[in-house]
Design a protein that fits this description.
By secondary structure, the protein is an alpha/beta fold. It contains 32 helices and 31 strands. It is about 45% helix and about 15% strand. The strands form 7 sheets. Strands 7-6-8-9-10-16-17-18 form an 8-stranded mixed beta sheet, sandwiched between helices. Strands 25, 26, 27, 28, 29 and 30 form a 6-stranded mixed beta sheet that branches. Strands 2-1-3-4-5 form a 5-stranded parallel beta sheet, with helices on both faces.
Amino acid sequence: MINLVHPIILLFLCSILSSSISAQNTKISVNVGVVLDMETSFGKMGMSCINMSLSDFYAARPKYKTRLVLHLRDSKSDVVGAAAAALDLIKNVQAQAIIGPETSMQTNFVINLGEKAQVPIITFSAKSPSLASLRSSYFFRVAANDSSQVHAISSIVKAFGWREAVPIYVDNEYGEGIIPYLRDALQEVDARVPYRSVISPTASDDQIERELFKLMTMQTRVFIVHMLPELGPRLFAKANEIGMMDKGYVWILTDGMTDFLATTNSTVMDTMKGVLGVKTYVPKTKELENFTARWKTKFRRENPDVFINDQLIVFGLWAYDASSALAMAVEEIASSANFSFQKMNSSGNISTDLESFGLSQSGPELVQALLSTRFRGISGEIGLINGQLQTSTYEIVNVNGNGERKVGFWTAENGLVRTLKTRNFNKYSTSYTSLGPITWPGDSTFVPKGWQIPTNGKRLRIGVPVKTGFQEFVNVTPPFSNNDTTGYSIDVFKAVLEALPYSVPFEFIPFATSDGKAAGTYNDLVYQVFLGNYDAAVGDITIRANRSLHVDFTLPYTESGVSMIVPIKDDKSKNAWVFLKPLTWDLWATSGCFFIFIGFVVWALEHRINEDFRGPPYHQLGTSFWYSFSTMVFAHRESVVSNLARFVVIIWCFVVLILTQSYTASLTSLLTVQQLQPTITDVNQLLKYKENVGFPSGSFVEGILIQLGFEESQFRKYGSPEELYNLFENGTKKGGIAAAFDENPYTELFLSKYCSKFIMVEPTFKADGFAFAFPKGSPLFPDISRAILKVTEGKKVKDLEGKWFENEKKCPDPDGKISSNSLGLKSFWGLFLIAGVTSLSALIIYAGKFLHEHRHILLRSDSESTIGERLKAVFKTFDQKDLSSHTFRRHEIGDRSVVDVSVPNTNCPPSPSNYSAHTESEFSFQGTPPAEHGHGHSNGQAIEGTESEVELTFQLQIDQ
């Protein structure tokens, strides 16, 4: 019995172990469709990389539960074929995901099928930005979006200073998708797209040649080529054949061709010498080297009749990583996903294939798994943000005879860099010095300027204004040829073209109607340049903000501004009061006040020590005024004895001398010279009295006048200096004008002819001068501006001014006179300041000295006297003579000697001075003499003794 139990237990254990091993070996097969063009080497390469990816993936992860089962369908290079293949995979195979198709056109329709069936569509080669606009959550692109390279291209254009670039692209969804992004990127660096060259994918060599000949007739020499290798080599073969690969041309390739350069044969490479290309950057790793070597061996063994160069292109790497990403995502959802399709009920009796296939149950989960997948693949970091592989680095290559040569990189953080090891995260470079040496077409090492005047193309069409007046600037006469177009502006333009380092053929096209009259205003002429009817506009065209919205203006070649011209009149009103006109009222008033002030100062300084300023109050007042006012004619006879007064008088006489000389000169001018005054001095006068104003026909000045508040009924337009003169002659009452507004070059020209009758007055409105107008982004624009600087800084512009305006600057009317204005206080306030400070300082010094000498009066201890009484005593003392002064002591001695000696020898009456002395002596005995310096008695005794002697002397005279 025991022997039977053991075999049963052993059999049971073996059964359990066998079931466990069988369960471990069970793998979940997941159907995956692949849609490629298997008739092309590209499709075979992609399929080979996909197979190797899954083989390597599961070999490294043998314990994974899922296995991708590939179902290949050939799209036969056809959009319908790709759609049919995808439909078959979804409906019949129930593919949980589809890798492919190859092209953007094929992928566009397949994406809609995947969205409808909830099947992710994963492409590694469809790069058109237009696919992202479908906004399908089931579309994944493990490849660089074409729009991510446009900033690398625009950085190259900016680095070399090119202002225009022409894109040449294939006429399909792949070619058109990048153009909006490329145009915007070029506009950000101030580069214009003047033309877009579109070539059909089925274009013949003759059609390509005709398109290239059209490009040769244009100025632009920078071309950006965006097409696939099927069409690109044919384009360059024709370009090389007709001479468009010579010096001066620039060719830039997008990665659509640059990524395939490794597979391009040497014959094609020879036709592309000097081309720059933007290429997807793939970091070099040991894994990449190992895979490339294995892939070459496998591919050559499986496809011995297909020629592939040693370098594996980036699309194969993306195919490898796309397959790995899908395998990871499928394994992630294996435990929860239902890898089956839910059948959909058809609506109606008629059922089509589009309605009959079901919905993938695993689709939504698989989408989320793909979005969260992150790993490092052989092409670099793999991460599908919003279903898109992120690319931030591009390699810049230069095609030469030996193939492609790396000259630098472009990164989103640093711009152009020579190597990735020298990246500076704080600086964005757009300088060509950050790149290595470049060989340009024609084996040239000099940077092409990016444009050229075509020798076999049309000349520059230069629009010039047609005008009847001020023809010194622009004068166009029939039959409208270059030789019949003259003027200062025209000569400046010709001189500028001569200063260019190259020749620019041109022809002047008058902006005129069929009958030879002006076709519009200057604004209209500038707008014609914007419309492309003219290549430039040349003439007396003023830079204005509204015009600069449509064109680019060069640097100005003249200064400008808007000024007002008014007639001048001779003020002949020489009436009886004309003598008051030389000085303004404020100067008259100031002078009068100073005469009074100086008289007061001299009196204050002199009346205590000078007999000429003594006497009754009215006599003293009259003497002071007489003295100060007589200095006007220097007729003052009174002498001053005080040093302070002498100093004041010297300064004041100097001021009076300046005033009188200035007054005499101004009065002489008023009486003898013609007085020219503007009839209008302010714009407000014109507005107040509703005066008519004039401005040139078609000028922007009209807008300025409207802003100032003028009404259109006040406007009068003119076209020549003669018309303007007639409007002034008529005046507002006869339909003329009272003032005219025009730009300074025109006003100066008008005044040079009528300098004796009109004058330029304020205000002056700012204007930026005359310049030449070019289309926005014109390659000629920067060179013309630099040439203008050369001409205006040199002697040439002076010679041209002398040629056109020298005779006009000489006023033909000999009666022109300058106007004379009244003298104002502003011209003399410095003199008055000196006189005032000097006089006031002398007065202060004298007052301080006087108060110090008589301080005992203010400081006496008499308790009965009030402050008022003390001040009254001070003023009384100030009014009295200063008998201690040397002038009075010398005077008394002189009087005594005169009396004693002269009386016996003459019978004449005494002189006024003797009489004055005698009178004062008699007056002094009528009361008690005042105390002086605190010694009243002693002084009184001295005076008394002196008076007694005088009395005795007179008595002796009587006796005799």
